[in-house]
């Protein structure tokens, strides 16, 4: 059961001028489900992306990175689920290239104007016949699909589609931005079996877009973790269709830029958090906040040490304030000169540890009460600096084991 | 159910001359179980230890490290289960000191000749009245307890006592070594809620003992992981009673030294592996072998990346050759210039990945068959150097979640 997540209302997902969507049911892994999505972008769109840091990164990731670098002007994205095309070597790369070239042919554009994305099982060859048939169908249907269809078409173990849309006023102009994401396992910073796409109609300069896509990932998709596993295929793509030429962001320093960036951040954070809320077997949505660190890097070490500890996560699942496990996780987070007698820990506003020891006023009942909620915040004060960070994660439940022990069967 | 582990036969556990054992049932956490162990060493014994690297290390760890450094000649060890005396600040340190001083008084030795060890729940104050009563009882019974009793007295979530003994011939002399260990969760390199003690009657010079304790830990207790959590209390202690003066190891370069070290290694590895075999919820015992790395450090990164991946561990549990998860874990093991197209992966002798792709001759049935065994080996060849390492781990089962969600209740 997802934690405070419901299916988006299709009526709340606004079309973005300059983006056409089409999907297909190609039967890549199972028949009868949407598993191919094609996004066609109007000429002149700007696109920026960030990708997995996994060294075993998938063939389509390598290809999409190359095509983005060639700056020929991206005109189409094609996404398949059911097969990751990772750990497939040169034949896998050729398959990704073949897919791009097929799309290019059908749309009358160049191969390097196409980005390719895959998600699913690793180390199995792509079923190219079904893929190309599906792509052909999806292209045929371009313009008929909604963002809700698109969100559904990229799901794998997700239980719900994930999408978010914002319409904002920038001066006299109305700007529309809509995004979709997928992912429920193998979720970790930098990034996860997670795909995210956000498009907006404002006109954002390529340099600004390149900067923003990294900044947005760093405050959303790079701050979530379910199981500490970084996938081979993660990608986050930001698209400006330039359809609304009245709003021009050239440097990112314009007053309008801040408004648009904040709205994009809201969309990205919502899409990223939706992945955690739908995390495999998740029964809780937990915010881990680390304050007073010497650097954000240091704060992140502590936050992930807590977020990745199976012992902490099972205690979250059990609503058991076994808080020593949190202290232990802080203790092994690999900060050499950490002074544990300066550390305070809170569950929501209940102070559980003060100066490295159990808080004098601590009542287990109060901590248990906080942990019994399906959403709560763990705050750690390190008392050694001014940097801070926030990470979102889930508990570790029986259901997680079931899902991952049975995923392929 | 532990994996290929049975309770040691008390008759196989040989007394070590110069070590007297006593236990008590002090009711620290629950009544009716052995929870205090006292080891009294004959005058002149040499002792060396390695301890947790967790910054939140427990009060008794701090105290024992100090006492070892003071080199007053350790004469007694006292171990309690049920409470870790960690995250307890200065009052916790005073409690550990009080315990040491109590033991010293009763035995007519100095306080800094006593080492103190605790394991159990973190961040709760030690019940000192019960502890001291128990210690008193244990001292009263010194000499009556066996190594089997000792192994039982240090258990927490362990389902079986862990002990190992070897009697070896060194020239005309017979050397006896016996050890015990405990631990089943929060198990990780450097080290875990794990305690290990090995005593032998040969005469080993303090400098050699100091070196050996580290070397032994590095090939045994520092090569096991269940959940990646490093505990606050881990300790491994090596004791030479010097009872058998006929075998003198002064430099470690003597021909006898090699024989003794190898036997100690066998005992340490057996004790460490017993912890994994009894791992919380373990249904499999998995050896992860990484070869052809540029350094052992690099090999360890890859090995732990695989051993800590919840996705790999659930696949092990399910006997599901979802081998892409292993490749993904290798890919995110943080080796910058890793060339994935050089990597081979084997399950026992079945080659599953060759040059970074699925092996041409790979049959899923063969991999499934290997994984259905309760013990198997994953071998990774990196093809970039000559260093290698071995790590032992478990799968991740429903039972693991149950145990850790319910541990305190």
Question: What is the topology?
Answer:
Two copies of one chain form a homodimer.
Chain A: E1 19-24, E2 36-41, E3 46-51, H1 59-70, E4 76-83, H2 89-107, E5 114-121, H3 128-140, H4 147-153, E6 162-170, E7 173-182, E8 195-204, H5 206-218, E9 224-225, E10 235-249, H6 255-277, E11 285-293, H7 296-308, H8 310-317, H9 324-331, E12 344-347, E13 350-354, E14 357-358, H10 364-371, E15 375-381, E16 387-394, H11 398-406
Parallel strand pairs in A: 4-5, 8-10, 9-16, 11-15
Antiparallel strand pairs in A: 1-2, 2-4, 3-10, 6-7, 7-8, 11-16, 12-13, 12-15, 13-14
Helix pairs in contact in A: 1-2, 2-3
Write structural notes for this entry:
2 copies of one chain form a homodimer. Chain A has 409 residues and is α+β, with helices and mostly antiparallel strands. Chain A folds into 2 domains: 10-277, L-amino peptidase D-ALA esterase/amidase, CATH 3.60.70.12; 285-406, ArgJ beta chain, C-terminal domain (Ubiquitin-like (UB roll), Roll). Chain A contains 11 helices and 16 strands. In chain A, the strands form 3 sheets. In chain A, strands 9-16-11-15-12-13-14 form a 7-stranded mixed β-sheet, sandwiched between helices. Chain A has a 5-stranded mixed β-sheet with strand order 3-10-8-7-6, with helices on both faces. A 4-stranded mixed β-sheet of chain A has the order 1-2-4-5, sandwiched between helices. In chain A, a hairpin with a 2-residue loop joins strand 6 and strand 7. The two termini of chain A are 21 Å apart. At the A-B interface, helix 2, helix 8, helix 9, strand 14 and helix 11 of A face helix 2, helix 8, helix 9, strand 14 and helix 11 of B.
């Amino acid at each position: 059961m997802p934690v405070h997540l419901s299916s988006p209302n299709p009526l709340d997902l606004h079309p973005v001028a300059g983006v056409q969507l089409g999907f297909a049911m190609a039967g890549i892994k199972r028949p009868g489900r949407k598993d191919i999505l094609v996004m066609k972008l109007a000429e002149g769109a700007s696109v920026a992306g960030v990708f997995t840091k996994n060294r075993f990164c998938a063939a389509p990731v390598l290809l999409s990175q190359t095509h983005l670098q060639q700056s020929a002007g991206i005109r189409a994205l094609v996404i398949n689920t059911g097969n990751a095309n990772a750990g497939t070597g040169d034949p896998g790369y050729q398959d990704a290239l073949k897919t791009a070239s097929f799309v290019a042919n059908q749309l009358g554009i160049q191969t390097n104007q196409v980005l390719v994305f895959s998600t699913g099982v690793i180390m199995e060859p792509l079923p190219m016949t079904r893929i190309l048939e599906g792509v052909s169908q999806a292209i045929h249907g371009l313009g008929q699909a909604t963002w809700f269809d698109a969100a559904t078409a990229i799901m794998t173990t997700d239980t719900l589609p994930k999408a978010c849309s914002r319409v904002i006023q920038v001066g006299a102009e109305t700007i529309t931005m809509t995004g979709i994401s997928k992912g429920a396992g193998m979720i970790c910073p930098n990034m996860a079996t997670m795909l995210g796409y956000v498009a907006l109609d404002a006109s954002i300069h390529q340099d600004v877009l390149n900067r923003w896509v990294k900044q947005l990932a760093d405050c959303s998709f790079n701050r979530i973790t379910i199981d500490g596993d970084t996938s081979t295929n993660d990608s986050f793509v930001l698209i400006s269709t330039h359809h609304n030429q009245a709003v021009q962001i050239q440097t990112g320093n314009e007053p309008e830029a801040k408004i648009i960036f904040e709205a994009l951040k809201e969309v990205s954070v919502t899409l990223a958090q939706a992945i955690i809320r739908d995390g495999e077997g998740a029964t809780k949505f937990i915010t881990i906040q680390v304050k007073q660190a010497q650097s954000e890097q240091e704060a992140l070490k502590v936050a992930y040490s807590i977020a990745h500890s199976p012992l902490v996560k099972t205690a979250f699942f059990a609503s058991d304030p076994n808080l020593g496990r949190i202290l232990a996780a802080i203790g092994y987070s690999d900060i050499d000169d950490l002074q544990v007698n300066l550390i305070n820990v809170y569950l929501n506003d209940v102070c559980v540890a003060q100066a490295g020891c159990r808080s004098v006023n601590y009542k287990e009942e109060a901590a248990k009460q906080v942990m019994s909620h399906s959403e709560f915040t763990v705050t750690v004060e390190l008392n050694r600096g001014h940097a801070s960070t926030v990470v979102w994660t889930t508990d570790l439940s029986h259901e997680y084991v079931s899902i991952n022990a049975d995923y392929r069967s």
